[in-house]
Structures are given as structure tokens and as C-alpha cells.
Amino acid sequence: MIASPPGKSPDAEVLLGALRDLLGAVGVLTEPSDIARYATDWRGLFTGRPLAVIRPADTTEVAAAVRLCAAARAPIVPQGGNTSMVGGATPSDDGREVVLSLERMRRVRDLDAVDHTMIVEAGVTLQDAQEAAAAAGLLLPLSINSEGSARIGGVLATNAGGNNTLRHGNARELVLGLEVVLADGAVWNGLRRLRKDNTGYCLRQLFVGSEGTLGIITAAALQLQPGLVSHAAALCALPTVESCLALLGRLRRRHWAELQAFEYMSGAAAALVPLAFPEITLPLAASPHYVLVDLGASETFDLEAALEAVLAEAMEAAEVSDAVLSRSDGQRKALWRIREEHSEAQKRAGASIKNDVSVPISAIPELLRAAKAACEALLPGVRTVPFGHLGDGNIHLNLLQPEGMAAADFTARTHELADCVNAVVHRLGGSFSAEHGVGRLKTGMMAEWRGGPELAMMRAIKSALDPAGLFSPQVLLPPQDPDAEAARTLRDA
Ligand code: 2HG
Ligand code: ZN
């Protein structure tokens, strides 16, 4: 490895020179002011000190840059839109890592309306990919609240989930093929667009969710759906979490084909949105629970009337106490904005501890009750502000600093409070990271939650595909502690 501070050692200078020859000045950034935005994550949890930020323009350049970095033993951290919630795309602060940004690879290479597929490069934002599909009357059925910045490479490398998972699955369900640059600089062109292809291990799925640790995704073949032409959305106020589940059951029975999203907002979380964004008003009276329902259909269909009928039944059954239905596209977008601004509203409300957890849907009432009680017992005054993708079992069980407590004192309690939530999640058979991944923030939890044969298999895959540990060495896999892992294996056996 290059051991000296950035740009100082002769080895580092040689590598930078070779990268400049390859990528040109526009492709290699080293000035602190130029690299600052690549060196810090969205949440501001990690600030790294990369040797350089490189920005290849195409796959050939990515492959050549990987070969140069591999020869110089300079680790590479691939980066897309830098929207990770867990520091997955942020370099370390040792001055040795090269951030490889895919942001200049922004071509939609192909869109086939008969096959319902598109091939996009890694640097295309999710929103641009959605818009390209929509322009052809098709739907790329993946929606996350950072889709204006998140780029396809990162979306796939982290197996993003988001708002439509209950209906269309996570990112991995949409991937038919990938193009990947491997650790030795070889390019794997696996951009097949086949629904059926049983020819051995499903290699593309290894890279989806690998968080940049196995290879660099440079392009993807994605499955599209017919475009939606009819829509209806409603914001509902509900008395209990159980009533949220009852409404979900009702909608699944009546409108499974049309149900696109079923998003939960606790009253405490929703109340922060108008505080952060005075132009937003909650169109319903204060309630302990809200749900945003979104229906969509690919043919002309009076979905508003359909949704109104289901909500009338739910009100009759006292599951829903009040609801507001969108009557136009503008109103639908306004309802969605309330949900979409939750992250930013929480960021503005103070220090927060994010728990991106999932449990079986039936366990959500117990999760919310037990986690809140446990956290309040540990830290009186802590504000539990859960929201998320109730329709697929993923709740962002976030905690906000108590009023009057210093942010640093609160964040110093992160581990205790996260453990408190995760003890409940574990008891309910859930996961400590539903859709945000492990990144650099949560590697410490891998041995406990995924130890034994599972972590051993992950390590075997890593060492087979990236034996020198070139890609994202700080991400996903914890530093090896064979004794702890062996002990875990024995316990599990
Ligand atoms: C969302 O669902 C994102 O809005 C962000 O996954 C969640 O800020 C969060 O905790
Ligand atoms: Zn989410």
C-alpha cells in the first residue's frame, strides 16, 4: 500500500501522474476545494482525506484506472451520488484511498420498448433513468427519496429499496445484467437482458448489495414495466399501528395490482416537516399515525373512486380516522412531499441516530412500542420519530436528541441506543439494516448479526474476487477477528 500522506510520496506522485495521463486534468482532482464534496458523506458523519478523486468517462478508462491503482496498491472507493446513510462511499482519512466517481458516465445506452429493458451507465441518476423510461411510456419501478442525486451504480451496489419495494421489490429484482470492472482491471460484460438464464451462479447478484467491495458496476440492464397512466394517493390518519396493518391488508386484498406504496409516518415524525418547511402544511389534524397510500395503473381507471371506496370502508371499521385524497397530480405530489422531506426535516431538527430496521410486517406494532419504551427508559426525553416503508416491513426507527441536550452528548450514546433498538429487532426476527446497507458505520455489527458461516462465505467471496483488498477496504466487512468468528461458528453449530 502507499503509506505516505497524499501527494507527498514518490509512489503517490507516480500514480497521480499516470492517472492524469490516462484521464486528463478533468478526470483527476486533488485540490482540497475540488475534492471536499466527495470526501464527506451526506450525513456529515465521516470526512475522509482521499489521495485523489478520479472521474473516468467510460468503462475502458475505469478499467485502466483500476489497473494503475492495483499496481500501486492504492485502494479505490467507488462513488455514485454520495447519498449513503452509512458512509459507504466515503474514503478513509489515511490519505491513501482513491475515490472513483462514476458521475461522468451518464449515458442511457439503450432502451427497448418491446423487451421492456434499458441499459444505463452507472453515473445516470435514478431520476434521469426514470424519466428516460417514462419518455418511452415505461416505468422504472424504483423510487427512493434521494433519486435526484443517487446514481444507478450506487443504487445497485447498495441494493436500494425505497418506496415501491412492496410492489416491485428492491433494486436487485430489476437487474437483468451488469457490466463490472473487476479488481484486476478485467471488464465483465454481463449485460444480458434475459429473464431466463440458468447457466450457473448468478454472478450479477453478487455485486448487487456488495457496496462497492467486489467490483465497480459501470452499467446495468434493467427490467422495466408498463408506464402508469392512472394514479391516486391519499394521506390517512389512523388511531393505532394495528389499524395501519388492517388498512394495508384491505388494500392488498382489493388493489394488490395497483398498490405502489404504503408509507408510514408517526405523528411525531410528520410534525417535524412543517417546522422545517413552513410552506408545507399537514392537511389533517394531529394524529399518532399517518399512512400515505399510492395506487397506480397502466390503463385508464378511476383509481380515485376505487381508493375512496376502500377508505370509506376503513373509516366505517374505525381503522382510519380521517383521510385526504389527491384530486390532481399536483395534489398527489404535495402529499408525497410530506413523506419525502422526512429525512431533511429530521436533519434540521438536531442530532439523530438512524435505525434502518426491518421486521416481519406483523411485528411492526410490537417493534414500535417496545423500541420506544426501551429507548425512553435508557434516555428519558429521547424523541422517537419513526417513519418508513411499512408496506415492506422497513421502518426508519430514528431517534432525535432530547430537547435541551447537547448534540455531542446525545451522539455519544449512539451505540447504547442503537443496541436498545436492535435488541427488539433481533427478538422479532428482523435486520439491523434493511435498505441503507452496512457501509463504514455498521461493520461492527456484522460479526454479531451475520457471523459464523454467513460471514465466512462473504469473506471467501471477497478474497476470491478482490484478493488484495483493493475495493472499499473499510466498507461492509469488519476487520478480521478469527477468534470471535470461530467462537460464533461454534455457538451457531
Ligand atoms: C427514506 O425512506 C430514506 O426517506 C431516508 O431511506 C431515511 O433519513 C432516513 O432515516
Ligand atoms: Zn427509506
Protein topology:
Elements: H1 10-23, E1 28-29, H2 32-39, E2 52-54, H3 59-72, E3 76-79, E4 98-101, E5 108-112, E6 117-121, H4 126-135, E7 138-139, H5 152-157, H6 165-168, E8 175-181, E9 187-190, H7 203-207, E10 216-223, E11 225-226, E12 230-238, H8 241-255, E13 259-266, H9 267-276, E14 289-297, H10 303-316, E15 322-325, H11 329-340, H12 342-349, E16 352-353, E17 356-358, H13 364-378, E18 383-384, E19 387-389, E20 394-396, E21 399-400, H14 407-411, H15 414-427, H16 446-450, H17 453-465, H18 482-492
Helix pairs in contact: 1-3, 9-12, 13-15
The protein binds (2R)-2-hydroxypentanedioic acid (2HG) and zinc ion.
Intertermini distance: 37 Å
What small molecules does the structure contain?
Answer: (2R)-2-hydroxypentanedioic acid, zinc ion
Name the poorly predicted regions. 1-7, 487-493
The rough form would be described as globular
Percent of residues in beta strands? 15-25%
Biggest sheet record:
7 strands, antiparallel
